[in-house]
User: Fold these one by one.
Assistant:
Number 1:
Amino acid sequence: MHLLDILPLNSKPGGRFFLFVFELVCKRVSFFSVSMSSPCLSSVLTHANFTMYETGIPDVLSQQPSVLPSINTLQISNPAYSSNINSQWYRQVSPHCWTADNVLEWISDHVESTKFDASTLSLAYCTMDGHTFCQMNLEQMIGIFGPQLGPHLHESLQEHKTKYELQSLSGSELNETCQLLDNFLDNLNFPLLSTIRIGQAEVAVSKREFDHRDDYDLPSLTMEPMTPLRDTEYLSDNQSDSEYSSSSNSGMFFSNLGSPESGSGESDPEFSYPLISKGHIKTEKEESRLKRPRGRPPKISRERNSSIYDCPKKNKHAPRGTHLWEFIRDILIHPERNQGLMKWEDRREGVFKFLKSEAVAQMWGQKKKNSSMTYEKLSRAMRYYYKREILERVDGRRLVYKFGKNSSGWKIEEIGMGM
DNA sequence: GCCCTTTTTCCTGCTT
DNA sequence: TAAGCAGGAAAAAGGG
């Protein structure tokens, strides 16, 4: 039996549902400690990737079915891949509300990350739901999962529980930023998959091309076709290449999202719409013909696809969300959480620097439910703050800004802590 | 519905 | 040469 054989017939390889099923299969397979050789995994991933972007490279798998491993010889060669590929949905749900399946998946991630031999586990303990799990103390965990995995699971569970308790206690705005940081940084650890060679073709496959569910997109995992953003209709000359040669995801955050100093690459914002078909990959001539109009594109596609941006409609009189400068400030005043995204250059003067500019932009985009946010756009918004004296110019220094006299909440005296 | 504010998007030119 | 900066222009969208 082949991996692809167990997928639903109507799940197109490379499509969202295909990846979802593939992901689930991988997770289950790895959890039950069966093995697959890494070249086989590479083949599967390559297949999904090539099919997804219609590169024209021959369909290796369909032509060589023998390359596919049987399901019980699968082995996840890169534990980080499988443990991160699903964006760890359980970070969005209180552990008390986890279903047995959720618990199983959570355990699975830890099994993979700790390289624990899951074959020693009894399945009988894997049918507990989150509520039952939360009742267990450290000793009980060790009793069931052993001295290696038990404490690990216990610690992780406590973290999740604490996070949700804190969330219900403290300010929602600040928490949102912190949560965003947490989710974001969790994904920073994901290593790039190795470069895969097929014949003469060499394709660098990264997690961003597989992980299409960021933390905000979790509820959107449906099989319904999605209407592409207007970006698929209008293309600017300087955007098209990066936007259609690959897809990305807000849950990606690799080193290539940083500033030049952190080895940054081009941000690739159109990531929440993975259903890229041939029809969306335009030729150079088409690109130059179909220029995107100036100004902000209408929100039509987002509202039409409420499953993508699954959030309640904003009340007209609801208070505005956090402003950009406040979002930046919140990152800065939590240095233990921002982990190298930004740093203070001069804490007292309010001078700060973007270290991973594109990553911060992606976070801002996540917050605003805007998948195409880039540092370029973010920085434009930042420059508007000069006039209002929320920010001051710092001449001659790239990625460096300074809080102005109309900003607040960042001074040591104001927040009452030494940083 | 109008107006204002706050972005967002695109663009050109310049600097590092 | 690429990345970042500066700022104009236009538009979206929320709120008064």
Number 2:
Amino acid sequence: MNDTPPKDTAPPRTRIQQKNRKAILEAALEVFSQYGFRGSRLDQIAQASGLSKPNLLYYFPSKEAIHSELLTCLMDTWLDPLRALDPGGDPREEILAYMRRKLEMSRDYPRESRLFANEILQGAPRIREAITGELKALVDEKAEVIRRWGEEGAIAPVNPHHLIFSIWALTQHYADFEVQVRLILEGHEEDPYPEAERYLEALFSRLLAPESAPAGA
Amino acid sequence: MNDTPPKDTAPPRTRIQQKNRKAILEAALEVFSQYGFRGSRLDQIAQASGLSKPNLLYYFPSKEAIHSELLTCLMDTWLDPLRALDPGGDPREEILAYMRRKLEMSRDYPRESRLFANEILQGAPRIREAITGELKALVDEKAEVIRRWGEEGAIAPVNPHHLIFSIWALTQHYADFEVQVRLILEGHEEDPYPEAERYLEALFSRLLAPESAPAGA
DNA sequence: GTCTATATTAAGATAGAC
DNA sequence: GTCTATCTTAATATAGAC
């Protein structure tokens, strides 16, 4: 269970400033995660935060600044689950635990996931550096660990980059496509996550089980 | 290989109308798939299509009309791969073939995938009925087929709805997060799709292999 | 710090000439 | 059918009172 919410960075001065900044960022997350940067209106954020539009711009210099504050905080938190993948731990359990942490992130912070998805869909104009820098470096590092595990026979040999992509895709899907998932599961499951966890555990357990022979091409 | 592009519906009259309507929808797909409905500007679509803004509105009554035309055509095409899943075919091969068709759709029509993703992220305001109607009915129907296959021992028993979600998530990820995938694979793979296909075949082959015991909880 | 009022620009849509 | 010019609304941002 990962209960650490995305962090605030800028240092607020007074109590009331702290409270209002938080309210704005909370409202902005709600709006930006749904409509993306260009599709979001300051009006909506103002209304959602309970503040007036000029008051928003007293706390932040611009719409862009609010968005970029959210993204910066997010990127850091977003990498934590992968950072925690321990090269010294049990290979299969480490990967499953990573998957579980990512699924918990989707369940507990679906808006953050959608904010990220929106940004990528739009071509990642504001986080390109973070992706080619921090994120790529971290992924390459952990991919090498996973590759080694496969080579040593601790897990079945799989393409480590695509393994990581598949964990992202499968877990984030429940946040990003939540509306669709819930509409389709109507009449079957109220909460998708318990079944999702069971299903994904089975999926990755079988994929990584070292005894089973590679089945694909 | 699925070479059928998303279909046009409205009946064009003259050659030039046909050509211009096509150019507009092509440009609109480019723009809407990236920025979503609210984040897209008619100006951009005009520029991308090589027509003037008023001329766009000669062919379509409004921005909304262009978008809704795209979505309507898309929804139909979108369901084809799942429709083709044959209850009478070989279970494991049918599911793998469905996954392959979806992966080809991501590769050949990534913008369509992103248009859909954008719409769902925004809460599916314009395709809610299509989801609760057509799509849900089709998914429930095919899920029942898959459930039966599991019961009969032709494949390992898995939650069929989540199996379908996982095929969507994994294949669409390569289209929706294409920017991220390519940035991260830089220095490893030029084209992600060949490796993606190998990886996903292994993943689903092992998941569905009836001999392997359920490994999860 | 917060508000009302407003400047300024941008965006969707229309009029009317050609 | 296509263009220029324009109307109208809406959105970001600012000024200045309180």
